# Entry
Amino acid sequence: MIKELSAAGYTYAYEPAKDGNPLTLLLLHGTGGDHTSFIGLGRLVSPGAALIALKGNVNENGHLRFFKRHGEGVYDMDDLAMRTLRLADAIPDLLAEHGRDPAFAVGVGYSNGANLLGNLLYESPGSLAGAVLMHPLLPYEPPMRDLSGKPVLITYGRRDPVSPAEHVDEIISRLRERKADVKAELMEAGHEVREPELKAVASWLEEFAADEDD
# Structure
């Protein structure tokens, strides 16, 4: 079903958990995608989890995304900051609306969605228990934050023209400098998401859920 979170202006698709599964995925699509299609990725990587798939609230020439930009890889940093805070404010309400435990809430973002989640990690590290960043692009020096032990998976493509592998390597290094618990998976791919990447995300989510249960 589709619900509107009036406090933050988000439309989102929601699918309840199965068999008491405590895991919740907050799903953020890439530019040109939407919440109704990206929720399908959530089903593939964690079939029993509760799924909250947000709809991008910026329209760029008919393509939905989560924050404004001036050009390819040139972000409107003021807009990014504002929308990061809006997301941080919305997450507790979204989880409470469906009775979900924040300790088992993981953000999963692809491309533009991963970029917003990546910024959220730095600006509001307590908003989510973990994050999966698929093909991120964060072309700026983030603030120093103590991210000690924060579980993060980054997946990226060796031949990605949008999120170049060498740039993603820098993102990984910056997160590790801030003590995040980062696992990185380099795929033999471009910017697209293929089956090996989905399997890597599914495996990481299983490990995350098992660790939280201990």
The first helix runs from residue 35 to 45. Helices lie at 35-45, 77-97, 112-123, 165-177, 195-213.
